[in-house]
Design a protein that fits this description.
six-stranded antiparallel sheet; transit peptide; Elongation Factor Tu (Ef-tu), domain 3; alpha/beta; 13 strands; FAD; Rossmann fold; binds flavin-adenine dinucleotide; globular; 31% helix; NADP
Length: 384
């Protein structure tokens, strides 16, 4: 579906809607979903942001029967429900376990990257009907169907996936969770050819699933990436490679898109490393935050295969972007900023080396600084 098609569908959706806000939201999203289910084009992620824009526009148009424009002219936030999801003092943990998993349903699977991205990443919306609440930064476990090849007769092991939505989900009603999943494909190192028998079990199950398919979920799990909210004015430096951006999408929707009681007034700074422009994830949402909240959001991208060079003339990786802004980052950390790392394990050594080098250049001991950051609970790492 092209961007303009998404726009016109969105207009059509709310030009005929009436009734209360919740049913209005549902009708908009249902209409958009039914369109995007069948077209795994990369315009889908645009459609996703268009839905948000549409919703905001629709909120202004509830009393009219025809509302043609879907342009975002106000930075008003989207209402979310049920607000009781704000009440618990502790995050939900392991409500469902591998032996008693929850059967959820796939709502949609959309390719989240452009045609020139190496590999495929999908944005997957899962309907849990409000039964599997979670907080931003947590993960779900997924048990793919079939038999564990290492334990005949037993189910597959659980695979963890960071949740890429807020607790209210992409439809703002607390009934869905979204995942950002990269399809694990195996290439024979000698022939360079794909060997489907060795492709990743769970990521391929998820990326191939269809709306309505059942899915076994465990969790939610994880506390290390929870967004500390005691200080609304805090600084959050978020570093991701690829699908590592998932928890940050949740944070940023909570900070900038949703009308939640905890109003964010601090600074969120996202560093995202991917191969090229087509591999950028949720770029339209992030770009919009930059436009609407320039005082509170910064966004730096490292595109390793797109020609931009680091200061040593090598490829631009996320650690090179960090180095570029290291003075500011160190000052922010000294002032209590939280720093988060999420993505492939391989990202950490390069980043740690860079931070150590910068610390030494500043005459500081990185080991001492890291100990202090950990002690102060400013240091959050989830790599896989
Ligand atoms: P598996 O079947 O487990 O295979 C693993 C790898 O081995 C694959 O690359 C596969 O191609 C290869 N392989 C299989 N058979 C062979 C063989 N015979 N010889 C050689 N190689 C072989 N992933 C995401 O995409 N998004 C996320 O947000 C995300 N969040 C995570 C959060 C946490 C906390 C953790 C721990 C992991 C997260 N992951 C995430 C990774 C995810 O859990 C899975 O590990 C990943 O999807 C691969 O699982 P799979 O079942 O597809 O692959």
């Amino acid at each position: 579906m092209s961007h303009s098609a998404a726009v016109s569908q969105a207009s059509a959706a709310f030009s005929v809607s009436s009734g209360n806000e919740r049913s209005l939201k549902r009708s908009i999203f249902k209409q958009n979903n039914s369109i995007s289910f069948n077209s795994k084009s990369w315009a889908s992620s645009l459609a996703l942001s268009q839905r948000t824009t549409s919703l905001r526009e629709a909120k202004r148009c509830t009393n009219t029967t025809i509302c043609m424009s879907v342009q975002q002219t106000s930075s008003s936030k989207v209402a979310v429900t049920p607000l009781e999801l704000e009440d618990p003092k502790e995050p939900p943990l392991n409500l469902y376990k591998p032996k008693s998993s929850y059967t959820a349903k796939i709502v949609s699977v959309e390719r989240a990257v452009g045609p020139n991205a190496p590999g495929e990443t999908c944005h997957i919306v899962i309907d849990h009907d409000g039964n599997l609440p979670y907080w931003e930064g947590q993960s779900y476990g997924v048990i793919p169907p079939g038999e564990n090849p290492k334990k005949p007769g037993a189910p597959h092991n659980v695979r963890l996936y960071s949740i890429a939505s807020t607790r209210y989900g992409d439809f703002f009603d607390g009934k869905t969770a979204s995942l950002c999943v990269r399809r694990a494909v195996y290439y024979d190192p000698e022939t360079g050819k794909e060997d489907p028998s060795k492709n990743g079990v769970c990521s391929n199950f998820l990326c191939d699933s269809k709306p309505g398919d059942k899915i076994q979920i465990t969790g939610p799990s994880g506390k290390v990436m929870l967004l500390p909210e005691n200080d609304p004015n805090a600084t959050h430096i978020m570093i991701a490679t690829g699908t590592g951006v998932a928890p940050y999408r949740g944070y940023l929707r909570r900070m900038f898109m949703e009308n939640v009681p905890n109003k964010f007034t601090g600074l969120a700074w996202l560093f995202l490393g991917v191969a090229n422009t087509d591999s950028l994830l949720y770029d339209d949402e992030f770009t919009k935050y930059l436009k609407d909240h320039p005082e509170n959001f910064r966004f730096d991208k490292a595109l390793s295969r797109e020609g931009e060079k680091n200061k040593r003339g090598g490829k631009m990786y996320v650690q090179d972007k960090i180095e570029e802004y290291s003075d500011e980052i160190f000052k922010l950390l000294d002032n209590g900023a939280h720093i988060y790392f999420c993505g492939l394990k391989g990202m950490m050594p390069g980043i740690q080396d860079t931070l150590k080098r910068v610390a030494e250049e500043r005459g500081e001991s990185w080991e001492l600084k890291l100990t202090q950051l950990r002690k102060n609970k400013q240091w959050h790492v989830e790599v896989y």
